[in-house]
Specification:
This protein is an all-beta fold. It contains no helices and five strands. The mean pLDDT is about 85.
């Protein structure tokens, strides 16, 4: 049985290949829209392990070299 006191791990790790939709804060949507993304996770942000889990972020590096922020709930691991 898992230890209920043990920290939970995020479903993504640095280096995972993912696809999904980028995150744009509501106040910035007048100039930018969420868009489909595909790339590698380069940072797993705060918000995991029950703290603002609905807003848990990752940063994804696109093939162009740009990085986009995404909510964990809006991405999935890409097929190998």
């Amino acid at each position: 049985m898992p230890d209920p006191e043990a920290p939970r791990r995020a479903p993504y790790a640095v280096g995972d290949q993912v696809t999904g939709t980028s995150y744009v804060a509501p106040e910035d949507r007048w100039r930018e829209r969420p868009e489909p993304i595909a790339g590698r996770v380069v940072q797993v942000g705060s918000g995991w392990d029950g703290v603002d889990a609905a807003q848990a972020f990752v940063w994804v590096r696109l093939p162009s070299g740009r990085e986009r922020q995404a909510l964990m709930r809006d991405i999935r691991k890409a097929e190998p």
